[in-house]
Design brief:
The protein contains three helices and six strands, in the order E-H-E-E-H-E-E-H-E. It has 112 residues and is α+β, with helices and mostly antiparallel strands. It has a six-stranded mixed β-sheet. The longest helix is centred in the middle third of the chain and has 14 residues, at 52-65.
């Protein structure tokens, strides 16, 4: 089963999983080992299927627009780095189809 990794930073975990659930996307948490240096405190793995790109684009756009300062950075399989802010839903869908991982960043704790 293929998955798309979403690295969640700061306070992005709760908003991201809420949006994934609201959009009917299947996900799980990747086990983290405390002896390993991690760039992100958590990794969510979203199950890939042919129809999930529209929903995933919606999740990321909603996450970005919900609060000023939020960022989504996508790394493609060919190691290109793309900032999702300002992309249309269709553009984001095309980028996500080539994605290796996604980083969701909420820089501040006042979103809860």
């Amino acid at each position: 089963m293929s998955t798309l990794k979403i690295h969640v930073f700061k306070d992005s975990f709760r908003p991201v999983i809420k949006l994934l659930d609201e959009n009917g996307l299947s996900w799980s948490m990747r086990e983290q080992r405390s002896c390993v240096v991690m760039g992100a405190p958590g990794i969510i793995e979203v199950v890939l299927n042919a129809s999930m790109w529209v929903s995933m684009a919606s999740v990321l756009i909603t996450f970005i627009k919900a609060k000023h300062g939020r960022k989504v950075i996508i790394t493609t399989k060919d190691k290109k780095v793309i900032h999702a802010e300002g992309l249309t839903a269709k553009e984001l869908e095309k980028v996500l189809e080539k994605a290796d991982s996604v980083a969701a960043i909420d820089p501040d704790k006042s979103n809860q």
